[in-house]
């Protein structure tokens, strides 16, 4: 009897874990020949899997990365797996506003099109600061991508119809923004949650400002993914986190599916400003749909990054 209970319990645990890790896969075969895609943080995790998927469909894929050595290694892998040589790498440090401006200047000189911008790079909640004295998490996850997108917006409009995809997380629901302290950096998890909420507000306001101009924007929660974010923490924390991720989190390939879906599916075109997960639109908490807060964050972000 004990053996039977053990077998049943193990089976229940296995099926529960399998159910929790379920994900829809986007099977669309739409080609992207002649299209240019820019992916921040495309050298690892979801960004790399997205790069492979879009390069396979014929897109010119540019991965923007901070670590040049890791980028070169990822570039070789992406080319091999996608069977495409139309993949490039450019240097970009989202923790440095000067680097972002220099990157955009070089990109606009080099590239005549930008059809899809995927703001994928991100930082977990860490008690650190950017070169411009912003909290690392808020500075990279929101402000860096805010400045990058705005500087590249003219090229997106010229290439219309075009799309902007901002990666966010369902953890947005655990915090609200405090405009008296947007640079909050006390509790790492709360800082991360606020940055992910900022990604959602940014997406909504971008969609409103570009309405009728051929540019659409989408916020994507890829699910909880077995990525390399634990590299910012101690060895013990990494071991424990890797165990939890192995049990409950999905693969990077599965996590990239909703990003790919929003990048190429025609179904999402009328849903600009929406929040997506598991290859479909998902509801947001009421406070995350406040257009007044979204507009206020946009104006505050403009001031913080000195965007005229």
From TrEMBL:
Alphabetic keyword roster: Oxidoreductase
Entry superkingdom: Eukaryota
Gene Ontology MF terms in the entry: oxidoreductase activity
Gene3D superfamilies reported for this sequence: NAD(P)-binding Rossmann-like Domain (3.40.50.720)
Family: Belongs to the short-chain dehydrogenases/reductases (SDR) family.
Protein name: Uncharacterized protein
